[in-house]
Amino acid sequence: MSPEGDALDLARQAKMELALKEAQAIPSGQAAFAEIVQAHQAMVFSIAWRYLQDHSLAEDMAQEVFLELYQSLAGIKSAAHLTYWLRRVAVHRCIDLGRRRKHRREQALEETPEPVHEQPEADPFLTVNVQSSLATLTERQRMMVVLRYQEGLGPAEIAEVMNVPVNTVKSNLHRSLEELRKKLSRKLGEVRYAIL
Amino acid sequence: MQFSEDNLKESEDSLKEDSLKEDDLKNALRPVDPGPAFTQRVMARVSQLGEAEAKAKAAAAHRKARRFAWLAAPRWLSVRPAWSAAVAALVLVIGLGLGYQQYQRVQQQKERAQVEEARKAKEAERQVMLALRITTEKLNHVFKRVNEPLAPEQPGTRIRRQSL
To answer: Taking CA atoms, what residue in B is nearest to A187?
Structure first.
């Protein structure tokens, strides 16, 4: 990362530490809590949305996670702890909800809903395809891929967040990437063929 | 199956050569912001939660207050402090009087019990003395008869046993 990026991260973290302290000073902490929500909502919502593949369900779940945070705010020690706590709670709530829904572990590519959000900076075609291919993975693989590529966590961190052995994370990621590559190659090939 | 970091690295490296690049994957999986409306909805729920908690706290405090209401002083006591003091003094005097009366009654009962005990002890002593006197008399009589010389024996007569 560039020195500007590092400085930006440090400033963001300092701001978050400040917001956390303000939010903990109840009852004056509502605005600071809103700032915390704003800073982390993308992470929590995206984990839920990519795992559950349902926009409204993901939003409800993300709201529940933030309400839980509001009630447990006194126990949060730092900005880093806050991010770790939110990520961990979001992951576990997703897994619980996934189990409750008794959702099929794998989905056919054709049945996958189209993503609702656009990514203006990324290749929209690729984004759509990656997300629909992601839906065909098992729930556990999907969560691991999300944590690896959305959150940028290493296998050891993923293992800690999901309470699974590191080797399980590595093997699942390996298999997931193989599957994603196969599916995307086929899809991209089809498109190239169609264009030509 | 044991997977090492190399296996994963190999998979990730192959991404770079393939149609799907690691950066593409990261870009495709960038966090998606649900928008400012989401923050508002969360904050609305937080406010509702805060209100609900405050209501629950108030209800709990009210329940507690009602539970211990009987401990609180009557309302009229707080109206006239001088009256309250007078009533308190009166209650104290009456209380003390009644207490003293009760104490005296208990003392009298104790004294009566002691007198009765003493009378019973005296009676018992008198009876014991009487019994001892009777016993002594009887023993003296026996002693006298035992020590009396016997009448000379007539031949052919049977010794008759005399009862004591």
So the answer is: B19
Last residue of a domain, one of A103, A131, A153: A103
Q: Do B33 and A45 touch (CB under 8 A)?
A: yes
Q: Find the residue in A nearest to B20 (Cα).
A: A181
Nearest to B164 by CA among B140, B135, B142, B138: B142
CB contact under 8 A, A71 and B49: yes
Q: Cβ of A122 and B25 within 8 Å?
A: no
* Torsion angles phi and psi, residue A52, rounded to 5: -85, -20
One domain for residues A82 and A8: yes
Most confidently modeled range among B58-62, B83-87, B98-102: B98-102
**A170 with B14: Cβ contact below 8 A:** no
- Work out how many domains chain B is built from and give that number: 1
Interface pTM, i.e. ipTM: 0.73
- Residue A25 and residue B45: Cα distance in Å, rounded? 19
In this predicted model, what pLDDT tens digit does every residue of B116-140 receive, in sequence order? Answer: 999 999 999 999 999 999 999 999 9
CA distances from A153 to A144, A149, A150, A162, B13 (A): 9, 7, 8, 12, 17
Cis ω before B152 (30° cut-off from 0):
no
Regions of chain A with pLDDT less than 70: 1-8, 26-29, 102-123, 187-196
Query: Which helix (H) or strand (E) covers residue A107, if one does?
Result: none
Nearest CA in chain B to A65: B42
Sequence letter at residue B92: L
pLDDT band at B105 (very low <50, low <70, confident <90, very high): very high
- Checking if the pLDDT of B110 tops 80, the result is yes
Can you give the residue range of the structural domain that contains A162? 107-196
Q: How far is B84 from chain A (nearest CA, A)?
A: 42
Provide the percentage of residues in chain B whose pLDDT is more than 90: 35
Question: In the A/B pair of chains, how many CB contacts fall below 8 A?
Answer: 130
B47/A contact by beta carbon, under 8 A: yes
Whether chain A has a CB inside 8 Å of the CB on B60: the answer is no
Domain boundary among A68, A103, A138: A103
